[in-house]
Structures are given as C-alpha cells and as structure tokens.
Amino acid sequence: RVKRETLSKHCEAGDGNGCVELSAMLRTDQGGPAPSAAANKALAESLHWFDRACSQNDPEACFELALGLHFGGETAERRERAVELMTQLLPNDAQSCDRNLDAEACERAAVVSAIGLTGPASLADERRFRSLGCRGGDWRACRALRHDDPEANERFVESAGTACDEDNAEACRSLGLARLDTGDAQPAANLFDRACELGGGSECALVASALCGDDGESHPLCGDYRQRACELDHAGSCHELGKALIDKDPADAELVEARRLMIRACDGGHAWACIDASDLSLYGTREAARELLAMGCELGEPLACIFHAEMIERGEGGAPDPETAAGAFERGHK
Asked: Residue 236 and residue 251: Cα distance in Å, rounded?
C-alpha cells in the first residue's frame, strides 16, 4: 500500500514510469483492491507524461510512449502513432548504437527489431544490437547473450558485478543465478542475500521463483528464499509456502501453519489466498470462512465473490442476506 501511494504521488508529479508501475499495481490489486478505472487512469496519465517529454525530444520517453500505444492501443489511430514514433526513433538509435555503442539506444533498437513494429521482426538484428549494447557496458544485453557467447558472458560477469556493487538488486540476482550455473553455490547465495537486502520481499520472491522453477524441479535453496520473501511481507510467497504444505498430505500441525500462511497472504492483499484460507478444512469455522471470502472479493477475485455469495445465500457463517448475496454474485460475474 505504501509503495502504491508513493507511485501515485510520483505519477501526479509527472513521472511517466511511475504511472506505468502504478497502473500495473492497480490492475493486479497489489496494495489493496482498486477499480479498473483507476488503473486505466494511471495508464492514461503515463501516456500523457511520456507524450509531453517526447515532444521535448526525449528519445526514451518517445520509446515508452510508442510501446504503450502499441500494446495498449485500442484504436487503429493509436497503433499507427506507435509505428510512426518507432519509425522516427529506429534510424537514430541504430546509428547511435553502431557508432557510439550507446547502451540505451542499442536496447531500444533491439526491442523494436524483436517485435517488428516498423517491419518484419528480425532476431538477427535484435542480436546484433544487443551485442553492441553488451560491448557498450549494458549488463542486461550481455545477460541475453551469455549462454552461447563466451565473450558476452565474461562481459556480463564484469558489468553485472559492477552494477551489483552499485546496489542494483536485479544485477545481484542475475549474477547469483550465473554463479549457480557454474556450481559456485556459496558466492551465489551471497549474491541472492544481497539482492534480498536491496530489493526487499519482491526481489527475494524473484530469487525464489528462479530457484523453484516451473517444471517441478527446484533448487534446494528454493524454500529458504520463499520463506525469507514471506517474512519480508511478500504475500504471494506466503501463499506458495502454504500451498506447498497442503499439497504434501500434511499433519494437523502443518495444516495449522498452512492456515497461518494463507491468512498472512490474504491480509497482504493476495485474493486467492483468501479463498484457500476460507476452506473449512483449514480454518474450521464458517464465520471465519465467510469473512475471508469477503476479503478475497474486496481484493477483486471473482471466485471469492461467488463463493461468498453462496455462503450468504445459504446462511452459512451468518444470517442469510439475499440482497448482499445478489450484489456479490453480480460482482463475481462482472
């Protein structure tokens, strides 16, 4: 909630990137429930401020404006404006990248080449621009190439190390994963610790996500960093820890801990955790289950609204209230 309030102030002050991040938080109900109109307003504000900065010949603002218009453009006019902006940017960025190894210009040229906004997508051009960006000191460009380019990998280790020393949490995390690939477990853990220290719960959660994987195979450190992220108030990590306990046929004591984790995640704004916490096998009382589903509904989860409506309609956990139940059903089906 504090972060959302801070971003709101930045957006109002004319920070286009702040508006973009605020819009993303509002759309995903981070920091509490938010009407879709608020997210749309923040996105519109971001385009407004980027447009103003672009009119003053700020290439990065023009680039962000073009991306916003392209991916969020509801009209042909907006999409055409995006193409027009990128067509103007690409030649200058390509030239700055080729001649001066301008890392920001190289990154913009690489993205335009990859998505094919001004013509057919070209992975060859994307790779060429990233290679030049890597030579210009952009550790993220080097990261994109490091797996099949030994020279880019060497540059990545050096430039990411410098960025980490300068308190860049993402660089610390990325370098830690690279160290883990080569079997350097302790240096990797030190870098992950540094990333968590710099970036808080959200960064720790990204470390955990990378370690836990999506294919069912996880690194032994996965649980440690997910636990740490939860302790740093990352609601999604608390929810994942709770689910992990439930999924392994838990004993009663583990069910109690899973319930505690789910409630913590629900209190932190994770709507689906409210549904899981409301499961009577976890929480035990219908009154508490009804209250948790109400929280999930307020956080914007449609199923929580529907389950809450069903409990109200049946009079579970409190007196039946047809009017409130109808409102919850309507909200869930919107």
From this structure: 23
Using CA atoms of 62, 63, 64, 69 in order, give the dihedral in degrees to the nearest 10.
80
Helical residues (DSSP H) of 28-75, grouped into ranges? 36-55, 59-72
H-type helices in 213-250, by residue range? 222-231, 235-246
Angle between helices 103-115 and 59-72 (to 10 degrees): 20
Angle between helix axes 185-212 and 235-246 (nearest 10 degrees) is 80
Cα 299 to Cα 192: distance, rounded to the nearest angstrom: 31
| Mean model confidence pLDDT for the chain | 85
Give the C-alpha separation, 331 to 198, whole Å: 39
Measured CA to CA, the distance from residue 130 to residue 103 in angstroms comes to 9
Give the pLDDT of residue 188.
Answer: 93
| Alpha-carbon span 139 to 39, nearest angstrom | 32
**DSSP state letters, 143-209:** HHHGGG-HHHHHHHHHHHHHHHHTT-HHHHHHHHHHHHHTT-HHHHHHHHHHHHHHHHHHHHHHHHH
Q: State pTM to two decimals.
A: 0.73
Each residue's pLDDT tens digit, 229-268: 999 989 989 999 998 888 777 677 788 888 889 989 988 8
